[in-house]
Amino acid sequence: MQHPSEDLKNIESLLEFYVDAGIDCFLGDSPVDWTELSRRKAAVQQKPQAAEVARQTAPAELPRIESRAPAPAAVPAQLTARSASPAKPSNPAVIPDREVVASARDQAASAASLEELRACLEAFDGCNLKLTAKKLVFADGNPEARLMFVGEAPGRDEDLQGKPFVGRSGQLLDRMLSAIGLDRSSAYIANVVPWRPPGNRTPTPQETEICKPFIRRQIELVNPDVIVFLGAASAKNLLGVQDGIRKMRGRWMKYPVSGRDVDAIATYHPAYLLRSPLEKRLSWRDFLSIRSKLSGP
Questions:
Q1: HEC string of 165-196?
Q2: pLDDT tens digits along 216-247
Q3: CA angle, corner 136, sides to 132 and 139, nearest 5?
Q4: Smallest Cα–Cα separation from 189: which of 128, 139, 225, 231?
């Protein structure tokens, strides 16, 4: 049986998806036949014309009968407000093909610094997630740190603030860092996908492939000594492994960065730990191993 908090979370995610999709008003208490409203509106517009024709063709000795059109049907206030407000300009959606991926690769490679890479992402229109996201979620923490965390994609709180891991999962990550004597000034945090997918859905393989050159370049520019992949998705996308997180976590691997092999490890995503608190003991082992790796030679 699902916990009530999980039901509320699912309902909240569904409502957020509706808002992102443009559904921003409640239904009325009674059904509305929009086809009938359109027919009545057309009939109202035609009656004055018919009355004018009847007046011109009527015999002169007969009194003219004025035609009074009935009041038009009431239109819901939401539709009136929406039609009165100007449409928001938006960039057209793109087809995520090889040409778009190649463009992302070229633009990412051209960035000589993290500031330039952020500017490239701000100007990049090759990922359709940018059309629905509120903000670019680029990174947080210290770019000079030896430790770098990589997640999959931002959520609602991250989308609002423009920073990764600032919601409940981010607060748990902060506590986990504190437990090994670190904080955000001791780490650099980013995601494979820098825009929030609508409704917190999983990014599609095409969306991930388009964004991958940017996170690869971001890792190269940070050039950390230790990389921690939060969840299986980021590890699979960047390491090319196919193992599940249960089999993958806690095992040290190598990630090539600028001609050298960087120590990399995958662990449970904090959002998963919030749903499965018993797994925190395994993540604690991973974080102890991370601390040992950072303090080693």
A1: CCCHHHHHHHHHHHHCCCCHHHEEEEECCCCC
A2: 999 999 999 999 999 999 999 999 998 999 99
A3: 145
A4: 139
* Eight-class DSSP state of 111: -
User: Could you give phi then psi for residue 263, rounded to 5 degrees?
Assistant: -65, 130
- Identify the CA nearest to 77 among candidates 26, 21, 1: 26
- Environment class of 210 (CB within 10 Å of its CB; exposed 0-12, middle 13-18, buried 19+): buried
Is 0.85 surpassed by the pTM of this model? no
Q: Decide if domain 98-295 falls under CATH 3.40.470.10.
A: yes
Adjacent-strand bridge partners of 253:
264
Query: Which pair of tokens denotes residue 148?
Result: 């770098």
**Cα dist from 271 to 89, 131, 166, 225, 265, whole Å:** 35, 25, 12, 25, 18
Instruction: Report the C-alpha gap between 29 and 12 in whole angstroms.
Output: 22
Domain layout of the chain by residue ranges: 98-295
In tens, the pLDDT along 81-125 reads 444 444 444 567 777 778 999 999 999 999 999 999 999 999 999
The label of the residue with tokens 């940018």 reads 130
Compute φ and ψ for 36, nearest 5 degrees. -65, -40
* Residue 278 DSSP class: G
